[in-house]
């Protein structure tokens, strides 16, 4: 058997879109209580890969963090949230969007049991230290947990968000 060959950049470019996707408004990742800019940049790159958008509060440091973290050259789809994030989340839910909380709770389903999104879905991520606050969890239709067998309490938030985005996008 011949060894597998890593695809060249030219081959990969031929398989990709020529421009960033517009706003499909179907899948939105929502790190509503962000702490570290580097995680936002990582999540934005996953958004490009799976065709998702990001919804994030307009804190003074966030636009810079996103501009810095966006290693892709084109503009990304970002929905800026002004005012209280819980109010924004409640409006999304009232408007018919499904809210999937990514969190280790006693009611969470396992990632393997999560189906691809069939309607507009908001993927809610928690604060890097304190997680999703109770008022956020109250608005979630379901919560999903990524099983772990190691010693750490939790995964990095951008890793957790990326895994769930891939599942909801139906790409794995
Ligand atoms: C670093 S964790 C929060 C800290 C966590 N409460 C702890 O005590 O370690 C940041 C966020 O990542 C997500 N997260 C991390 N690991 C996860 C897992 N295994 N399953 C689901 N969500 C996870 C959640 O959104 C969580 O709020």
Automatic annotation (TrEMBL):
Residues 34-166 form the tRNA/rRNA methyltransferase SpoU type domain. This is TrmH family RNA methyltransferase. InterPro entries: Alpha/beta_knot_MTases (IPR029028), rRNA_Methyltransferase (IPR051259), SpoU_MeTrfase (IPR001537), tRNA_m1G_MTases_N (IPR029026). One of its GO terms (molecular function) is methyltransferase activity. GO terms for biological process: methylation. Keywords: Methyltransferase, Transferase. It comes from Nocardia amamiensis.
């Amino acid at each position: 058997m011949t060894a597998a060959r890593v695809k060249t950049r030219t081959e990969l470019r031929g398989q990709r879109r020529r421009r960033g996707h517009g706003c499909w408004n179907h899948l939105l990742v929502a790190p509503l209580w962000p702490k570290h800019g580097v995680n936002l940049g990582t999540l934005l790159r996953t958004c490009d890969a799976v065709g998702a958008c990001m919804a994030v509060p307009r804190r003074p440091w966030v636009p810079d963090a996103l501009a810095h973290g966006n290693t892709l050259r084109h503009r990304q789809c970002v929905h800026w949230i002004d005012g209280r994030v819980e109010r924004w989340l409640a409006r999304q839910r009232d408007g018919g969007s499904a809210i999937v909380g990514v969190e280790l709770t006693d009611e969470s389903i396992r990632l393997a049991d999560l189906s691809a999104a069939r309607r507009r879905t908001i993927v809610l991520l928690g604060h890097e230290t304190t997680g999703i606050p109770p008022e956020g969890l109250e608005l979630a239709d379901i919560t999903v947990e990524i099983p772990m067998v190691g010693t750490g309490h939790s995964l990095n938030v951008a890793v957790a968000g990326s895994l769930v985005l891939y599942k909801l996008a139906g790409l794995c």
